[in-house]
Amino acid sequence: MTVAAVAIAVLLTAACAMTLVRIVRGPTTLDRIVATDVLLAVTVTAIAAEAAFTRDPTALPVLVVVSLMGFTGAVSVARFVNREER
After folding, report:
1. CA 52, CA 46: separation in Å to the nearest integer?
2. Mapping DSSP to helix (H, G, I), strand (E, B) and coil, where does residue 55 land?
3. Distance between CA atoms of 16 and 6, rounded to whole angstroms?
4. pLDDT(1) > 80
5. I need a labelling partner for 26 at 20 to 30 A (CA). Which of 2, 35, 48, 74 fits?
6. For 38-63, what is each residue's pLDDT tens digit?
7. How many other β-carbons are positioned within 10 Å of the β-carbon of residue 78?
8. Residue 33 CB neighbour total at 10 angstroms
9. CA distance linking residue 3 with residue 64, whole number of Å
């Protein structure tokens, strides 16, 4: 079980690092926004993995709220970009 937890932690850390590089270096604003959405997805995955390893069901409402915030943010940005293109 510990080997799996360490492997998941390493992979999630690598994903966060690559996403942060894209946020900093992204040539356009949309690249940064997509990278931020990916970072949120990685965060949700990390919380879910931690909840699975500790068998703690109280993390489920946190996951739902964070996921809904990410969805709302992505839709808001998409609508904003759509208005700028017109």
Report:
1. 10
2. coil
3. 15
4. no
5. 48
6. 999 999 999 999 999 999 889 999 99
7. 12
8. 18
9. 28
Distance of CA 4 to the CA centre of its chain: 21
Note the pTM of the prediction, 2 decimals.
0.83
Alpha helix (H) ranges present in the chain?
2-25, 29-54, 60-85
| pLDDT value at 84 more than 70 | no
- Count other C-beta atoms under 10 Å from residue 46's C-beta: 16
Of 24, 43, 23, give the one whose Cα is nearest residue 33: 23
Q: Please name which of 74, 5, 78 lies closest in space to residue 39, comparing C-alpha atoms.
A: 74
First to last CA, the chain: 53
